Amino acid sequence: MSKGLAIVFTFGVLAAALVAGWYSNRQALYFPPELHTTANECIPEPGLRYRGLVLAREDAVWWGEVMADLGEPSLYQRPAGSPRVVRLVWDPGYDGPMSVRLEAGEDGQWTMRARSLSLYPRYRPGRDGPPTGEIVRRLDAREVGSFERLLDRSGLIRSPSSSCVAGGVDGISWIIETFDPVEGYRYNYRQTPQEGPFYELGAFMSDLAGWDYGPGY
Questions:
Q1: What stretches of the chain show up as alpha helix (H) in DSSP?
Q2: Angle of the 141-154 helix axis to the 197-209 helix axis, nearest 10
């Protein structure tokens, strides 16, 4: 094989690998299909109560594109028995989304991987990316203690998947997903939470990333 053909062949292999990786990421199943037909009760504020789907199909498509753009793996398809993982995905609607994933290691250490898609004036899922910022670091003992207390207080590991939207169509979208080797996968969505255990956990995770803006923005 000539040098020129070898170079062309090498670039062809690399391009094919990139396309295969992109396609694989887009085909990941991020959410349990049963969430599309499961209803839950939502009480966004005192005196207001309604029932709605945990995750509509069109919302699953949107969030799947967001996860893929962020380069995030599917927690739902995580191998059974894998260490615990908690992920916050935050989308303000007026700029690109961000994710903060905390993953327990076999050694008991927790690692944070935070990514952002800061795109203005409007983020377009499936067409924009890759992430424009990334932070990876280990949590220290104090951070781990605070995080585990907030996670336990939230009850998200053991509670059924749920969704709750505050009044109005505009707001900041929060998703907190959990994977536990015993309890499995859980999905939880809230719109512009202001207080409570869910809010406290999400705000803490955002602060760990040290972003200039966060869920309380």
A1: 3-26, 57-69, 141-154, 197-209
A2: 150
